[in-house]
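Z., the sequence and structure:
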Amino acid sequence: MFYFSKVYNYLTDFRGNFKKALGAVFSPRSFKVYLILTLIFQALTWYIAYYIYRNLTGDLLILHYNVDFGTDLIGPPSRAFSGPLFGLLIFFVNSGLALFLRAKNTKQKLNFINHLLIAGAMVLNLFLLISLFTIYLNNFR
C-alpha cells in the first residue's frame, strides 16, 4: 500500500536538510566571493565565445597554436562554446558535491573540502577565460 504521509515526510525532511546544507555551504563570505567570481568568469567566457562565433568570417576556427609547429588544431566555430559549457558543468558538479558532502556529514567540519571544490571551479573558469582569450588572439589579431 502506498502511504502519502510517508512520502510527504521524506520530501519535507529532504527539503529541510537541503536548505540547511545550502546555507552551510554558501553562507560564509568566502563562498559568496567564489560564487560571484565564478559567475563573472562564466559570463565573460560565454560572451567571448559568442563574440568569436559571430565575428568569425570563415568556417574554420584556430583552436590551438604551438610556437614550434604553428597551428595544430582547427575546428568548426561552434567548438568555441565547448570551454564555457565545460566550465559550467564543472561548477555544477563541484557545487553539488559540496552540498552532498555537507548534507551527509553535518557533524563534521568540511570547510576545507568545500573551499577546495568551489575555489577549484572558480580557478578552472579563470583558466577557461584565459584560453578563450588566446583563441580570440589567434583568430583575430
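The mean pLDDT is 84. The first strand starts at residue 61 and ends at 66.

Let me know what you think.
H.
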